[in-house]
Amino acid sequence: MIEDNQKIQIKVKLFAVYQEVFGTPELDLVLLPETTVDQLLTSLIEQQPKLTKWRDLTRFGVNLQFVESTTVLHEGDEVVLIPPVSGG
């Protein structure tokens, strides 16, 4: 069993379709250590399956740096999910 002191807290900034679906600009989450950005995205898609079509199109940022989906998250990280955005 994982105790609370073995979990990490992160903030997820949501944009475009992610913000629309979750109805908020950011989420505060508690995750297991060694969680990757991709695992975070999988968890969010499991909560909101309509986001599945955006999975392969989403870019990731951690602490203001673009990162790969295999990046491991750490206590206090700020994650940004960046889906493609169209505008005019």
3D architecture notes:
- The chain has a five-stranded mixed β-sheet with strand order 2-1-5-3-4.
- 20% of the residues lie in helices and 28% in strands.
- The protein is an alpha+beta fold.
Terminus-to-terminus distance? 50 Å
- How many strands, what sense, and barrel or not for the largest sheet? 5 strands, mixed
C-alpha Rg, in Å? Answer: 13 Å
Strand content: 25-35%
Q: Give the % helix.
A: 10-25%
Shape: globular
Task: Indicate the low-confidence ranges by residue numbers.
Answer: none
Number of helices: 2
Number of strands: 5
Structural class: alpha+beta
**Oligomeric state as shown:** single chain
The average pLDDT is: 92
Identify the strand order in the major beta sheet: 2-1-5-3-4
Helix and strand string, N-terminal first? EHEHEEE
Give descriptors for this structure:
88 residues, alpha+beta, 2 helices, 20% helix
Outline:
The chain is of the alpha+beta class. It has 2 helices and 5 strands.
Write the layout of secondary structure elements.
Elements: E1 8-14, H1 16-22, E2 26-31, H2 37-47, E3 59-62, E4 65-67, E5 78-82
Parallel strand pairs: 1-5
Antiparallel strand pairs: 1-2, 3-4, 3-5
